């Protein structure tokens, strides 16, 4: 999508929402993947980049190796930003373990970093979630630590170096899934999606490399809202893709650092919701929109009956006009018993 001004972007999105064609309108206007600027990193983690379900029944020791890397990445068409990342992408890699596993965490800070970094796992029972044990200056390895995965759930991890909000907003967050005994119900496809905010000195839509704004961060006034690190990142080649008749699961989390998400998929209903990512509580059924706080997560399952492009949004919909939109592209045969567009009627005289 060519963004000459903020007005052209927001008006197109607003019109598309009003006409009920939000997803397709954005899809047709999106720039090709070749628009990635030369020499600028693609920091967006694909929603399909996650480990498969665990098929073992006994606890094991799982090694997690993280590297904190600061790099200039593409935030929007013609717009870049110096991200701080775990393993080079936003969000950081999804970790998948089983309840009862021992997790060994090692972390090193790339020599080209400007800042010290560490990692705090919300799945940890122990001081600072491992933050003190993983503190590392640029070019150094951390001491690392081990922890026992005691509680099933989907948990956020993030950098916890002061100012913590500063490190998180620059892209330093991810999730770890601790599967319950017996695992989760099987689905056909799984996806990994996280929401975040960027606070830039320059207004939304400005071209060139943008600078972080401490003032806007402190005031909780982001210029960009993002899924998986960048504006409209989960569209085009990195859209979620599935087939009619399939079941899908979205592991959804909010890095934040400040804003709660009202996660919603336009044109779909969540069949099953593991609220607050509690995998041992009775799940909710048939839910339209879920509330996920910063540093929180949820798991949603959907059955796909009708083909089309469905749009992932935060139902605080002004945020869609600041980059927060993704696509779930469903292909397959039409299903007129469930949904059918009527043909236009000829006007009567």
UniProtKB/TrEMBL annotation:
Signal peptide positions (record): 1-27
UniProt-listed Pfam families: Cu-oxidase_3 (PF07732)
Documented EC number(s): 1.7.2.1
InterPro entries membership: Cu-oxidase-like_N (IPR011707), Cu-oxidase_fam (IPR045087), Cupredoxin (IPR008972), NO2-reductase_Cu (IPR001287)
Cofactor field: Cu(2+); Cu(+)
Residue stretches spanning the membrane: none
Protein origin, superkingdom: Bacteria
Record note on cofactor: Binds 1 Cu(+) ion.
Molecular function, one GO term: nitrite reductase (NO-forming) activity
Annotated ranges, domain Plastocyanin-like: 75-181
Reactions catalysed, as given in the entry: nitric oxide + Fe(III)-[cytochrome c] + H2O = Fe(II)-[cytochrome c] + nitrite + 2 H(+)
UniProt keyword terms in alphabetical order: Copper, Metal-binding, Oxidoreductase, Repeat, Signal
Recorded family membership: Belongs to the multicopper oxidase family.
PANTHER family (alphabetical): FI03373P-RELATED (PTHR11709:SF394), MULTI-COPPER OXIDASE (PTHR11709)
Complex formation: Homotrimer.
Name of the protein in its database record: Copper-containing nitrite reductase
Species classification: Bacteria, Pseudomonadati, Pseudomonadota, Alphaproteobacteria, Rhodospirillales
Gene symbol of the encoding locus: nirK
């Amino acid at each position: 999508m060519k963004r000459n001004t903020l007005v052209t972007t927001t008006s197109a999105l607003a019109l598309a929402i009003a006409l009920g064609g939000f997803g397709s309108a954005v899809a047709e206007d999106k720039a090709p993947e070749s628009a990635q600027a030369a020499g600028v990193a693609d920091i967006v983690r694909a929603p399909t980049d996650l480990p498969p379900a665990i098929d073992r029944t006994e606890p094991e020791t799982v090694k997690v190796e993280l590297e904190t890397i600061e790099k200039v990445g593409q935030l929007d068409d013609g717009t870049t930003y110096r991200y701080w990342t775990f393993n080079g992408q936003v969000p950081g890699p999804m970790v998948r373990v089983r309840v009862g596993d021992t997790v060994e965490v090692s972390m090193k800070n790339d020599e080209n970093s400007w800042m010290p970094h560490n990692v705090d796992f919300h799945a940890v029972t122990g001081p600072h979630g491992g933050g003190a044990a993983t503190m590392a200056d640029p070019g150094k390895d951390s001491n690392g630590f081990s922890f026992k995965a005691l509680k099933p759930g989907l948990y956020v991890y993030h950098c916890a170096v002061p100012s913590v909000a500063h490190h998180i907003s620059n892209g330093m967050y991810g999730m770890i899934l601790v599967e319950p005994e017996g695992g989760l119900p099987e689905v056909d496809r799984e996806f990994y999606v996280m929401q975040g905010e960027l606070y830039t000195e320059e207004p939304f839509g400005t071209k060139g490399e943008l600078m972080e704004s401490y003032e806007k961060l402190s005031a909780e006034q982001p210029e960009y809202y993002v899924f998986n690190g960048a504006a409209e990142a989960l569209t085009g080649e990195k859209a979620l893709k599935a087939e009619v008749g399939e079941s899908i699961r979205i592991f959804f989390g909010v890095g934040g650092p400040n804003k709660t998400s009202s996660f919603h998929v336009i044109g779909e209903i969540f069949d099953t919701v593991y609220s607050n990512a509690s995998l041992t509580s009775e799940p909710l059924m048939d839910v339209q929109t879920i509330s996920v706080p910063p540093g929180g997560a949820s798991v949603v399952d959907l059955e796909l009956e009708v083909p089309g492009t469905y749009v992932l949004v935060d139902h605080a919909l002004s945020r869609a006009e600041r980059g927060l939109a993704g696509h779930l592209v469903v292909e397959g045969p039409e299903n007129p018993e469930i949904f059918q567009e009527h043909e236009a009627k000829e006007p009567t005289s």
